[in-house]
Amino acid sequence: MTGRTFYIDPLHGSSANDGLTSASFASGTNGPFGSLTDVWWNGNCADHGGSGDTFFCVASTADVIGDGTSTQYLGYSFNDTVRWAYNVHQNKKMEEYQPQFVGVNENLVEEENTHYTIEWRPPYYSSSNQYKFFDNYSADISFRQLKWECIGYDGAMFYHSSGGHGFYFVDCIFDWSGVEDGNVTSGSLFSTGNPSTSVKNCTFIGAGNRQKNAMDIGSSYGQHSASYGCRYENWNKAFVQKAGNIYGCFMGNIVKNCNTGVYGGLVSGNGGGHTLVMNNLFYDVDKPVDINGKLGARIMNNLMIDVGSYALADSSGTTDFSLTTGLIYFCFRRNIIQNATSGIIAPEIIAFSNGSLIGYTGPNS
Asked: How far from 299 is each of 53, 236, 260, 293, 304, CA to CA, in Å?
């Protein structure tokens, strides 16, 4: 069953309702659900929606999920071919299978700066690990105008090991500033072994003092990862590109108060993909781009201000731009750098001569 519309309204809804009507037209049990837990953990395809359906999430009040101790609402998986069309994307048109979760105001209209807020309170896991909101396996799920606030103990949005396409987040907010300082782990907010993930016009606010990574996507055989027009603040690494010989895009973003902006994190193999790092603002970032000996990238038209180390860094110290690595796709040009503490380009990068700095013309390239 596809093409249905469901409503979630934390202020006016109930788990006893059928979810088929907004609060304005509710009558008896014909009304909105009270929480996304009614759709995901407590729901089923026949009565609570699935692939091809639209879910209007009404921003009436916060949807509180979890109490800081219970493990009931953790690690929801979309690994369900019947309900969520997991791994059937190759045989269907997107509008036939992709479910959409859309944040709207109480008039059921998408409105700028109005987000359906999920106040997530995960329990303690360990000093070095964290529970996940979504866990293992994804489908082509679209989220718009939703906001996740992590409160108390630390948590992650998801880890997916392999298979399926990833999520699409548009105009969403991920605010981890509510995690208590003593509870912050060093894990990643988004992490996958393989599936792709795309974010557009989203905001990522980190916990603690630059301790976590925001996006950590793909692996040596991974798919694409893309970030367009997003804002990253207070992260260890904003965007880790792992996918080997696959395109990643990091374009039009603002990265502020982070240790590293874009990082070459390829697990094995060579090349680190053909990543586009273009038209971004890096402000108060120690290393706007750290190729780590593995990132094949076109780094162009970026503004880098108040750089704590090198504007173009290489933490590996062993970059090889030979024809066998895939780094022949590398270039660094037309970037503007102001106030870089250590310098523009790390000396271990300059030491190599196989066309690595195509188009580099001077200190401000």
From this structure: 39, 20, 15, 15, 12
